[in-house]
Amino acid sequence: MAASAEKVFKCRTCEETFPTKYKHDIHRNRVHNRNPRFRCKHGCNYQASSTHDLIRHTSAVHLKEANFGCNLCDRKFTQEGNLKTHVNAVHLGLRKVLKCRTCDEVFPSKYKHDAHRSRVHIQNPRFRCKHGDCAFQAVAMSDLNRHVADVHLRGGGHFCVRSV
Question: Which fold has domain 7-63?
């Protein structure tokens, strides 16, 4: 019996591959969707393409809900994936290393690998500053938040007033 060829779904934007169309579509919506339908109501500029992502963001970032506790130590995490990474790396000594196929830099997690690819190699800004006439764009929400804090926030956490 001949071995069947494994079907691979390749992202047209970043060339990442996925074993199923479903995982490919989730990737496209989460990473490359330029028109997120859901916006964070807590004032941080976060935008999501699904309610699941928005709820996960709100729980982790704004409510600081650390519902995933390690059974081997006292650490708690806001996401189950972070707990699994912790257990594997700290308690089991399993350190997954992902290498960037463009520059050969290595990363301890898929999240850090993907963030690197997005920021360094893809340069596809998804987040735009909405402050006045500012034209700043970022590929990661953390970069936009850092920009807003560094450029637009002044004493006491209030936005500065700029004339247009």
Answer: Double Stranded RNA Binding Domain (3.30.160)
